[in-house]
Amino acid sequence: MTIWFATGNTGKRTELAAILPRHTIKIPADEGIPFDPEETGATFAENALIKARELQRLVSKPHSPVPVIADDSGICVDALGGRPGIHSSRYGSEGGLKLESADRNTLLLKELGDNPLRSARFVCAMALLWSDDRFFLVQETLEGEIIREERGTGGFGFDPILYLPQFDRTVAELPEEEKNRISHRGKAGMAIARFLGGQ
Predict the structure, then answer these.
(1) Which residues contact residue 137 at a Cβ distance below 8 angstroms, ignoring those fewer than 6 apart?
(2) In 10 A of CB 91, how many CB atoms?
(3) First and final CA of the chain: distance in angstroms?
(4) What whole-number distance in Å separates Cα of residue 103 and Cα of residue 8?
(5) Distance, CA of 171 to CA of 180 (rounded, Å)
(6) Would you call 72 a catalytic residue per the annotation?
(7) What is the pTM of this model?
(8) Which of 4, 22, 92, 134 is the 20 to 30 A CA-CA neighbour of 60?
């Protein structure tokens, strides 16, 4: 089936398409649809549902909602009290101007400094919305540590600074297939895939 994905991030779309190869994944930009909903939720799950409901409103015909997937994800750093958390994509932004990924990574490393507490995790809440009151929601994590400088060229976002001791690599150093298998978004997406398999 065709499933809309409530994102403007082509990296996320590539990951989800690999996780759900039996389905066609479309994003708003494919049809020239402006999409930048205000994320007013207090949690990843709330923001995922906000995005899913807004995109479904934009792409559905009256009384015929189409399936929409949305995720909200970010990095939670223990030494920073869980920040940047739900504000990860806007971390360090001022005046509505978003920093590039590399600049956000630099800022996070600077803020963390030499703090010996380096534990952190990626969190992803993913919602599959059938209608406003009918949805499947899952939240997953990928545990790791913040290293002191970027490593790796794969992935996107904070991937180059989250180190996975069990693999002796950062997320950005993982092959794409392996990342999709173990990542927060990969595990959430596979739960969605299992749910769809039972539909």
Answers:
(1) 45, 48, 49, 125, 126, 127, 128
(2) 20
(3) 12
(4) 19
(5) 10
(6) yes
(7) 0.90
(8) 22
Of residues 69, 65, 72, 111, the one with CA closest to residue 88: 72
59, 30 Cβ separation under 8 angstroms: no
What is the CB neighbour count within 10 angstroms for residue 51? 26
- Residue for token pair 């794969």: 154
Q: Which helix (H) or strand (E) holds 104?
A: helix 101-112
What distance in Å separates the CA atoms of residue 148 and residue 113, rounded to the nearest whole number? 8
**3 is written with which tokens?**
């499933």
Query: How would you write the pLDDT of the chain (199 residues) with one tens digit per residue?
Result: 899 999 988 888 888 898 888 999 999 999 999 998 989 999 999 999 999 999 999 999 888 889 999 999 999 999 999 999 999 988 988 777 888 999 999 999 999 999 999 999 999 999 999 998 899 999 999 999 999 999 999 988 999 999 999 999 999 999 988 998 999 999 999 999 999 885 5
Nearest C-alpha neighbor of 138 from the set 65, 96, 187, 177: 187
| Ramachandran angles phi, psi of 133, nearest 5° | -110, 5
Q: Specify the residue for token string 């807004």.
A: 54
Residue 79, token pair as written in the block:
């030494």
Catalytic residue (one of 30, 36, 71, 72): 72
